[in-house]
Amino acid sequence: MNPLYYSLLHVFALFVLAAHTFMAFANPAPENRKRTMMITGIASLLVIGSAGGLMARHGYSWGSGWVIVKLVCWLGLSGIAGIVYRRPQLRGVLASVAMALILTALVMVYLVRTM
Ligand code: HEM
Question: Is any ligand 1 atom within 6 A of the Cβ of residue 73?
Answer without folding.
Answer: yes
